[in-house]
């Protein structure tokens, strides 16, 4: 019970209501004490009127008047020359004098608390103004036992009433909180548990129905999150199935390409000049295709091989990529340019860096050719103390909005129409294995620029 929201709310409500009642109780008891003393002054004034009618009264009548007024002595000053008095023996010295004519609220509360917590019977003097302006002042002497009993009775009644009000209020609030907050919250928790049991089932997505605005906003946010998660899970399932299919295709393709490698030796021995010129390119292409298949199989097993770092001239890789892409251009008006410093040596995995540059150049070529406009692709490089920096730029139409939004996410839209977005995602992953990065620096109608950064410092790769 105490561990529940409604149970704790019930306890807190009772505590807060009782605190509020205590804050009300203290001044109300002080007010009760003041009224009690004023009533004794009024009774004493009425009793003293007998003396006005007859200057001489017997002792028994005087005692009865004082007993009815519940005081010991009465002094009524009507003017400076005359005083009317009723008196009886005082059982103890006067403990304190209380003047009610100009007492502050603090003094009334302080004196009331002193009476409540003082268990001894005291004799006090009380001074006040007579009612109906029947004199200058009236003064009585009285004992505190009757006052204290009356204050205790009054206080217990107030506390009992406060407790009843607190419990009644707390129960009403308890029921209201259960209806307004606890039940909707339990409904949301139940919807989350139901959804967690089968997140692929769209029937388990929560349907917002809360009447409280904050809870409705929470249900709307939960519904949006569950909908997105269900869509992502479906996509992940499709990607897993596609990955299994790609692994099978890569396995068979690797076997086919391996067989094709056996025939390249005979091609290389041909005396035909054209064959001699094209044979090395064919051998390199087949070798890289075999490596891609092997890497795809390793990626499907979450075992992407770490880069094998070595030093080599960057010009060789770039020239090889551009030469291969020129063969795909044919008669199309597309030019290639290289801005690679002579003798620039980089440290990287040559095969993986080739794949990265080839992906970027191929994407640029396909984008320009799909636009139907002439264009140019340029590959440049520079170095500083910390890194080698390569740029691949083109004069194509720029990346579409979806490609910019999901630039390095696979299967989220490629850089060209019909693309799957795998090339950039694979390239970024390969460069991360080098401790480097692939960034889009600029894209638009004037063209696109990608930047490759390869650090020179030794880093742990995996």
UniProtKB/TrEMBL annotation:
Keywords, comma-separated and alphabetical:
ATP-binding, Coiled coil, Kinase, Membrane, Nucleotide-binding, Phosphoprotein, Transferase, Transmembrane, Transmembrane helix, Two-component regulatory system
Domain Histidine kinase, by residue range, is 248-458
InterPro entries, A to Z? HATPase_C_sf, HATPase_dom, His_kinase_dom, HisK_dim/P_dom, HisK_dim/P_sf, Sig_transdc_His_kin-like_C
Q: Does the keyword Ubl conjugation apply?
A: no
Say which enzyme class the record assigns.
transferase
**Which Enzyme Commission number(s) are listed?**
2.7.13.3
TM ranges are 6-30, 158-181
Superkingdom: Bacteria
Q: Which SMART domains match?
A: HATPase_c, HisKA
Keyword Nucleotide-binding assigned to the entry: answer is yes
Tell me any Pfam family this protein matches. HisKA
Any GO molecular function: phosphorelay sensor kinase activity
CDD domains xref list: HATPase
Q: Which reactions appear under catalytic activity for this entry?
A: ATP + protein L-histidine = ADP + protein N-phospho-L-histidine
Give the coiled coil ranges: 215-242
PANTHER family recorded:
PEROXIDE STRESS-ACTIVATED HISTIDINE KINASE MAK3 (PTHR43065:SF10), SENSOR HISTIDINE KINASE (PTHR43065)
Name of the protein: histidine kinase
């Amino acid at each position: 019970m105490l561990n529940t929201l409604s149970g704790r709310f019930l306890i807190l409500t009772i505590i807060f209501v009782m605190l509020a009642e205590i804050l009300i109780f203290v001044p109300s008891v002080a007010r009760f004490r003041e009224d009690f003393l004023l009533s004794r002054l009024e009774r004493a004034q009425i009793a003293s009127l007998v003396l006005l009618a007859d200057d001489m009264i017997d002792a028994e009548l005087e005692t009865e008047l004082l007993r009815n007024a519940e005081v010991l002595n009465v002094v009524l000053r009507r003017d400076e020359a005359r005083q009317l008095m009723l008196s009886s023996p005082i059982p103890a010295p006067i403990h304190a004098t209380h003047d009610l004519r100009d007492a502050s609220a603090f003094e009334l509360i302080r004196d009331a608390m002193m009476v409540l917590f003082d268990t001894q019977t005291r004799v006090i003097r009380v001074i006040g103004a007579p009612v109906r302006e029947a004199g200058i002042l009236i003064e009585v002497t009285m004992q505190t036992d009757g006052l204290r009993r009356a204050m205790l009775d009054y206080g217990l009644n107030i506390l009992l009433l406060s407790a009843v009000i607190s419990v009644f209020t707390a129960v009403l609030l308890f029921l209201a909180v259960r209806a307004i907050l606890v039940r909707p919250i339990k409904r949301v928790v139940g919807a989350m548990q139901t959804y967690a049991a089968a997140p692929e089932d769209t029937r388990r997505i929560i349907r917002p129905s809360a009447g409280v605005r904050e809870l409705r906003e929470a249900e709307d946010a939960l519904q949006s999150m569950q909908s997105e998660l269900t869509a992502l899970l479906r996509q992940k399932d499709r990607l897993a199935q596609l990955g299994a299919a790609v692994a099978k295709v890569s396995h068979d393709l690797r076997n086919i390409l391996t067989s094709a490698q056996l025939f390249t030796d005979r091609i290389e021995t041909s005396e035909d000049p054209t064959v001699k010129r094209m044979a090395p390119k064919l051998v390199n292409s087949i070798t890289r295709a075999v490596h891609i298949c092997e890497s795809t199989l390793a990626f499907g097993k979450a075992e992407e091989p770490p880069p094998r770092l070595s030093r080599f001239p960057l010009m060789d890789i770039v020239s090889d990529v551009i030469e291969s892409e020129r063969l795909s251009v044919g008669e199309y008006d597309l030019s290639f340019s290289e801005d690679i410093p002579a003798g620039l040596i980089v440290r990287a995995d040559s095969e993986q860096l080739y794949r990265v540059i080839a992906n970027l150049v191929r994407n640029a070529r396909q984008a320009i050719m799909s636009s139907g406009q002439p264009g140019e692709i340029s590959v440049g490089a520079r170095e500083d103390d910390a890194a080698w920096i390569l740029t691949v730029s083109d004069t194509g139409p720029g990346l579409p909005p979806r490609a910019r939004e999901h630039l390095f996410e696979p299967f989220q839209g490629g850089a060209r129409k019909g693309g799957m977005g795998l090339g950039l995602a694979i390239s970024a992953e390969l460069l991360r294995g080098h401790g480097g990065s692939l960034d889009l620096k600029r894209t638009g109608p004037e063209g696109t620029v990608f930047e490759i950064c390869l650090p020179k410092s030794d880093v742990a790769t995996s």
